[in-house]
Amino acid sequence: MSEQPTETPAPTPRPEQSESRSGSRSGSGRDNATRLLMGGSILAVIVVAAIITSIVIFVRGGDEPLVPAGDQGSGATAATQPDQFEPDPFFDEQGRVVYAPLDDDGALLAQSSPAAGRSATTAPSGIMLQRVHENMYLPFSTSDGPTSFSDNGVATGFAHTSQGAALAAIHYLGYLASGNNRIQMMLDAGLVNDPTNVLGDRMKFNASDQPGAVPDSFPARVLPMIKVNYTDDLARVHVGGSTTLKDGRIQNADVWMDLVWREGTGWVVQIRDAEAIGGRAVADYSEGWTSWW
C-alpha cells in the first residue's frame, strides 16, 4: 500500500451535535485504520475526504453478490463481457470482488429498468466494483448508470434517481479527494459548480507539499454506508464508514456532498458554501442509512 498523506492534527468531532462543517483508500484491517480528522473550513472538507478513503470498511466478505436480494429489477446481476475486462477479477483489501476493465476509464454495463415501485433506499441493480484510472475502485450498475464518459474519462450519465445521485456522488467524491490531477479532471469535465473557487484554493494547497496535501493519483475506495436526501433538482448524498482511533474508540463518520441536476449534463457537484460538502461523527448508522456494497 502506498503511504498516506500526513494530516495536521484537528479536533475530534462531537457525535450527533450540530453539524460542524468539514469536508476514501481502505486499510488492511480495523487496527490499521486512519483516524478521521474534522477540520473547520471547506478546505478541510476535501482533506477529510482524502482521509476517509483510508478508513477501514466493514463490508460483506467473500465472493458474494455486491447487491443484496430485493426489488432490484431484471438486471440484478451484472454480466461481464470477455472483451471488456481482464481475464480475472480480484479481491480488494476488504474481500470485495473488483473487476479490471481493459479501458482505464471503466466499462459501461448494459442497462435495464429497475423494478416498479423501487424505494429510494433500494440498491441499484447489478452493482460491480471496477478499478479505473489504475487505483480507483468505483461502483457501476446495470440500472442507474453510468452510461457514458466525459472526454477525459470521468463517468457520467448517472440516472435522474436517488440511486443515480448516490452513484455519481461516490464517483465524484473519489476524484475530488485523490489529488490535483483528478480534481482537474472534474473541472475540465464541467462536473463541478464552484463559484467561490474552493477547489482552486485546494489545488494550491495540494501543490504546496505541506502536511495534509494530497498527492496526485491518491487511491480511492468506497465507503460502505449510504443515505440520500433526494429531490429531482437537488440531492445531498451521505456516505459513512467506521475507523478505530488511537485510543481504541470506534468513530463513525458521516460525510456528505450536494449535487444539482442539470439537463444535458446530469448530476453536478455543488460547492456553493460550507454546507455543500461536510462531515461529522455520528453515534451509529441507524435512521435512513443502508449499505449497497
Structural summary, described in words:
With 293 residues, this protein is α+β, with helices and mostly antiparallel strands. The protein is 15% helix and 22% strand. It contains four helices and 13 strands. It has helices at 42-52, 162-176, 180-188, 198-207; strands spanning 90-91, 97-99, 128-132, 136-140, 148-149, 155-156, 192-193, 225-230, 234-244, 250-262, 266-270, 277-282, 290-291. The strands form three sheets. Strands 7, 8, 9, 10, 11, 12 and 13 form a seven-stranded mixed beta sheet that branches. Strand 5 and strand 6 (155-156) form a beta hairpin. The longest helix is centred in the middle third of the chain and has 15 residues, at 162-176. The two termini are 22 Å apart. Residues 1-77 have low confidence and may be disordered.
Write the layout of secondary structure elements.
Layout lengths: L41 H11 L37 E2 L5 E3 L28 E5 L3 E5 L7 E2 L5 E2 L5 H15 L3 H9 L3 E2 L4 H10 L17 E6 L3 E11 L5 E13 L3 E5 L6 E6 L7 E2 L2
Parallel strand pairs: 2-3, 7-11
Antiparallel strand pairs: 1-2, 3-4, 5-6, 8-9, 8-13, 9-10, 10-11, 10-12
End-to-end separation in angstroms reads 22 Å
Report the portion of residues in β strands. Answer: 15-25%
Structural class: alpha+beta
- As residue ranges, the low-confidence spans are 1-77
Mean pLDDT: 78
Order of helices and strands: HEEEEEEHHEHEEEEEE
Number of helices: 4
Largest sheet: 7 strands, mixed
Q: What helical percentage do the residues reach?
A: 10-25%
Q: Give Rg in angstroms.
A: 18 Å
Categorize the overall geometry: globular
Strand tally is 13
